[in-house]
Each structure stands twice: as C-alpha cells, then as structure tokens.
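Protein details
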Amino acid sequence: MSNNTPLVSVVTACYNSEKHISETIGSVLNQTYQNWELLLVDDCSSDRTVSVVEVFQKKDSRIKLFQLNENSGAAVARNKAIEEASGEFIAFLDSDDTWLPQKLEKQIDFMLNNGYGLTHTAYEIIENNGTLTDKTVNPQAVLSYNDMLYSNKIGCLTAIYDQSKLGKVYMPLIRKRQDYGLWLKILKTGEKAYALPEVLSQYRKTEHSMSSKKFNLIKWNWKLFREIEQFTVLKSAYYLACNIFIKLKG
C-alpha cells in the first residue's frame, strides 16, 4: 500500500439484516487498509439490526449509523450514506456480503496508481450459510457506457468511485437496479470502469438476492431504461432482451 491513505467511505444499506450484518461489519474491521468510515443506513428494520450495529458503533467511532423515518428502499438508504460521506473514495458493501482483508488496500492502490475514477473487482459467490460455491464472477477489463447497457457487469459489493474526481454521484430513485443506474450515470460522462481481476469480495446467495430471482430484473430494467435513461420503447426492449439473454445464459 502506498503512503497516501485517503479516507474511504463505505456505504451499507440495511433492512432486516441482523443475521449477517455482524459478519459484514467484521469484514470491514478486518481490512488491512484502516482509513475508512462505515456508513450504515437502516431502512426501518423490524428485527434487531439496529441493536447489533449499535454494539459495533460503541466500540469504533468509524462506524456510523443513520436511521430512515420510513421504509424507502435501498436507493434512498444508499444515497443518505453518500450524502453523509466524508471520504475521497466511495465504496459499496451490502449488508449480507463480505470483503476479503486486502480488498480496500489493493483496490485503492489500483486506483491511485492509475488515476482511475471507477473500479470493480472479481468476486466469489457464497451460500447463505457462508460456504463457498464453485462460482466466481470475473470482470471485463474495461467497461464503457455502451458495454454496460447489455448487462450490469459490475458487482455492487466490489465497486469504488473517486468522488474527489467525479463528485458525489447518487443512485436513481428506483427500488431495484439502482446500482446499475449509478454505474450508467458515471459512464455516460465518458468515464470508463476498470477491473482489478482478483477475487476480493464474497457475494451471499440469499432468498432475497437478485440472482435468486432472475425474472425480477425485467420490471426494474425496463423502468431503468425507460424512465432513468429515457430510451425509446424499441431501444429499451432491445437492451432489456440483451440483459435477459445474458442473465439466463449465466
């Protein structure tokens, strides 16, 4: 790791996350890169999520908890964290996923050494109980806006953007696929997404995860293309079909 250690703001939206949130927070605490703040935004959980987070919060001032007044969805929760972020870099980690210990160190070095504004990494899939599957998602080396229209090739748990370079970029206010919308918003400016081809994160397959509901993407991708990207019906249908084909093939 270089001597330059800018602050990284880690964005985590929580909703009824008590089962896995300790492991998620633990994976941030275990980072070899220690100049971070963890911004957890609870979206009106009905379980013990807040209590669990508060235990960690009392032990480490870098952990910050915000609570929404009404259940508003992941986009609103993540945007609240982005708004509160003080870091030069904005990283994303969902409340049931984890990072490997060198994730921040390697990825921030990768960005600083190359001047990249948006990066992501390979990640592995784990079962709900934490056991490894045989599936690894390997990223494409360089992604443009056009590349990303065919499918979302950036795992949210792996993504980091440089807000000192790009400014604070917020997620579109849709209930699902808002991370996809964020990457498109950044790439639309002509920025590229660069991949560090190393497994540095673990994505948990749960009954609520997007990968467990492949057809769930139809409604939300259509909304993203029509309302957020403001594509014509024909263009939206084309890219929706591409997304579905690639998802089913995977």
In short: The CA atoms of residues 66 and 133 lie 33 Å apart. The beta strands are 8-14, 36-42, 63-67, 89-92, 98-99, 118-126, 132-137, 142-143, 160-162, 193-204. The chain has two domains: 8-209, 213-250. The two ends are 35 Å apart (CA to CA).
